[in-house]
Backbone:
């Protein structure tokens, strides 16, 4: 009988601190350390090999014209997927009964809070079966380093190597694990006619298909749901949003406990058309002007510039042995219609063109509010921003496009602080 096809429509993605391929039991997975990631179509993961071709070059009428290919190394896994940016309403760190099992923060204000933490912080989102959120009260995450506060773990964005997790891609009936995965980059897109999304990308050490050697595939299926290795039993997915200590289960993406009684609510979508931008810029003469204008396009990128180390020994196929972070970069761009009134995009352009100062650390700030000032929204506040000179777009309606780079403000220089994320439902 022909084997059934594996469909993207039936595929699912999970992130966990638990290593099933490494021998961990399904009971080790709980909603505190394993999360479903609701991804859009077009996700990918792949691992390629580095090769070297050696060709012979001789003179004569019958030269050796042979060519050989050697596999020299296994490259790191590359993965990416896109999610909707959805506020959960879990913005307090006072503590709900079910969420306080770990004695940690309850501030988890976006459905993908653990991905943001993996990107920005050196604190792993869970240790064992206990979560360890660094998000603070009022749904806030600041890149600036700080010590632990009430129900919020210590945080530092200046880390030499990124926290490692395990990504599970359940491609219908085939399950792959990206071992020791790291989150390298997030790109927030707020196209005017769409729903706010984040495109996540990163790297991993190895890519494994989970087979039933030592029962590893069935351990994963016991949590994620699906057909067992013998195709004799179908297991339902085991999700729980109210009991974070429940074993052999994961936390769903869209459902969150929002009260001490265990009531759940659904995370909200964000309509980009309501988004706004507020920019304050001080001229060389010391005149500060606040510009508030609607946008036609917006993109924000946070990049860790992670690189993997791979040995170069002869006569073996080398494999990655570890990763380290590069310069932390927060960049982006926005587009708006050209308007000439005071406090609008035209005056903003004029002041940027006239500014001849080489550094802009303390002269401009910006607050991008995706979804508008009324919840649900996610705001990205940047206390110190360097703006490039805007460029014009000549179309039926004239536009200006501006690239920017967020920097550490002077009062947190050396300790991060380029961006402050605030999520409200």
Residues:
């Amino acid at each position: 009988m022909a084997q059934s096809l594996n469909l993207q429509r039936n595929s699912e993605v999970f992130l966990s601190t638990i290593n099933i391929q490494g021998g961990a039991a399904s009971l080790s997975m709980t909603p505190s350390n394993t999360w479903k990631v609701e991804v859009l179509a077009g996700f990918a993961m792949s691992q390629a090999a580095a090769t070297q071709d050696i060709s012979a070059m001789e003179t004569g009428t019958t030269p050796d014209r042979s060519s050989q290919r050697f596999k020299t190394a296994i490259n790191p896994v590359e993965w990416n997927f896109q999610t909707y940016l959805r506020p959960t309403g879990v913005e307090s760190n006072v503590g709900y009964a079910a969420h306080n099992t770990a004695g940690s923060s309850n501030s988890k204000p976006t459905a993908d809070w653990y991905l943001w933490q993996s990107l920005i912080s050196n604190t792993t989102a869970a240790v064992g079966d206990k979560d360890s959120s660094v998000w603070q009260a009022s749904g806030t995450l600041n890149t600036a380093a700080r010590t632990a506060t009430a129900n919020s773990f210590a945080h530092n964005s200046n880390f030499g190597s990124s926290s490692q997790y395990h990504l599970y891609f359940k491609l219908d009936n085939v399950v792959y694990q990206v071992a020791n995965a790291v989150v390298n980059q997030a790109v927030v897109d707020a196209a005017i006619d769409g729903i706010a999304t984040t495109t996540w990308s990163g790297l991993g050490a190895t890519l494994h298909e989970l087979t039933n050697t030592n029962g590893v595939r069935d351990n994963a299926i016991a949590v994620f749901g699906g057909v067992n290795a013998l195709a004799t039993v179908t297991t339902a997915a085991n999700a729980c949003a109210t009991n974070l200590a429940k074993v052999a289960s994961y936390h769903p993406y869209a459902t969150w406990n929002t009260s001490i009684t265990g009531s759940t609510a659904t995370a909200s979508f964000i309509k980009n058309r309501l988004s706004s931008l507020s920019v304050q810029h001080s001229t060389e003469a010391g005149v500060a002007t606040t510009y508030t204008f609607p946008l036609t396009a917006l993109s924000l990128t946070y990049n860790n510039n992670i690189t993997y180390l791979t040995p170069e020994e002869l006569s073996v196929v080398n494999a990655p042995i570890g990763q380290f972070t590069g310069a932390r970069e927060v960049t982006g761009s926005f587009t708006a219609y050209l308007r000439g009134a005071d406090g609008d995009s035209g005056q903003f352009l004029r002041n940027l063109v006239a500014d001849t100062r080489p550094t802009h650390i303390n002269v401009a700030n910006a607050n991008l509010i995706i979804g508008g000032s009324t919840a649900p929204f996610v705001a990205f506040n940047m206390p110190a921003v360097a703006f490039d000179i805007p460029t014009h777009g000549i179309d039926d309606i004239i536009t200006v496009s501006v690239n920017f780079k967020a920097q550490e403000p002077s009062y947190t220089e050396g300790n991060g602080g380029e961006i402050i994320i605030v999520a409200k439902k």
